[in-house]
Specification:
The chain has one helix at residues 34-40, and strands spanning 8-11, 18-21, 27-31, 45-51, 55-59, 63-68, 71-75, 82-87, 93-97, 111-113. Strand 6 and strand 7 form a beta hairpin. The chain is mainly beta. It is globular, with a radius of gyration of 14 Å. The strands form two sheets. A seven-stranded mixed beta sheet has the order 6-7-8-9-4-3-10. It has a three-stranded antiparallel beta sheet with strand order 1-2-5, with no helix packed on it. The termini are far apart. The chain is 5% helix and 35% strand. It has a single domain (8-117), classed as Metal Binding Protein, Guanine Nucleotide Exchange Factor, Chain A. The chain has one helix and ten strands. One zinc ion (ZN) binds at residues 12-14, 16-17, 76, 78-79, 81. The site of one zinc ion has 6 residues, from helix 1.
Length: 143
């Protein structure tokens, strides 16, 4: 694992699953949907979406959980760390959780999604665009 190579590396808390994302992400977003909240245990999740062909697992593989009829989430079966999110209709892209990146500072989010579901006491004044619902990539009417 050399951090000198281009791209972004990351992994779960225990280190059983490691990945490298080559190149730069297509989008970086905060998500305030209730499923991201439950999956992460935190008040919201953030993801960087890459071309699926750019993301390779360099150690282990995530376990998969179908969190809705339109998407699957990947996590470490050992430590439970949330790692990936992928829409069924967009299998050519995959999102990795920003918190699993070794250097999340390198990928600042550019938007908030599902702000209608944002926790009321969460006060975020970062000036980023806020979408009340899903990203424009989600299947119509679904999360
Ligand atoms: Zn782990
Ligand atoms: Zn979400």
């Amino acid at each position: 694992m050399t951090d000198a190579a281009p791209g972004h590396t990351g992994g779960c808390l225990c280190g059983a699953v490691r990945y490298r994302a080559a190149g730069e992400p297509i989008a970086v977003s905060h998500c305030h949907c209730g499923m991201c909240r439950k999956a992460s245990g935190g008040p919201f999740l953030a993801f960087a979406r890459f071309a699926a062909s750019d993301v390779t697992f360099t150690k282990g593989q995530p376990a998969l959980f179908r969190s809705s009829e339109s998407a699957v989430r990947g996590f470490c079966r050992r430590c439970g760390g949330q790692l990936t999110f992928q829409f069924d209709h967009l299998r050519d892209t995959i999102s990795v959780s920003l918190g699993s990146l070794d250097r999340p500072e390198a990928l600042p989010p550019t938007q908030h999604l599902w702000t209608d579901s944002q926790i009321g006491w969460l006060d975020l004044d970062d000036g980023l665009p806020r979408r009340p619902g899903p990203s424009d990539l989600a299947p119509a009417g679904k999360a």
